[in-house]
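Morning, I've got a small favour to ask if you have a moment. I owe you a coffee for this, so here goes:
>
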Amino acid sequence: MTVWEAIAVVIAGVFAGGINTVVGSGTLVTFPVLLAVGYPPVVANVSNSLGLVPGSLSGAWGYREELKGQRSRIAKLLPASILGGIVGAILLVTLPDKAFKAIVPVLIVIALVLVVIQPWLNRKLSHKRGNGDGGVLLWLGVFAAGIYGGYFGAAQGVLVMGIMGVLVNEHLQRMNALKNLLTAFVNLVAGVMFIFIADVAWLAVLLLAVGSVVGGQIGAKIGRKLPPAVLRGVIVVVGVAAIVQLLMK
């Protein structure tokens, strides 16, 4: 890797860290850059997952105020994300790419629809949800999103926000804070597994980690100031961009 290529990877990490903190889909920035500098797809995917972990944790720390009071929700959903990440990592090294990527655009479309109609559904379902903890459906949804995140990860945040937006009676910014924590652990457990079952480009991991930590803090400062309607719009725009890029591959 040349110096300029290394700089490009760091810059991509900054953008990805910021995008992941605000909504998700930062992988759609970093993964193509790693491919462009010469890494094979699986190595790029594995290294990307590991490299973006510090950025996700940085973003979660930036949203720490919004995480207050969500301890029981974290205790319930974190195991679902961790288990999903493990399953997704195993699928990455055992299943053909086409078998899983075929449904990725469909998953993102569903998530975007959920994000868009969330306010209406919140009003319709508020009297049925009780304390709004989401129940078993939320756990299964977060688990499924963790599988997807462990396998590839692009737009994982969009999926999680879509699922929680319908099933959890909570402010959008607080859900975004929880999303940052859950996706960070998905990437972490998948990344740890990749160390043992796949090849890792450690230089790329280091460069992405540096950039994503900076981007995570920038994303938290920007994202926490966005009104729910604007944040919802950002989610939709990024999700549509993710669909377009995945369909063009």
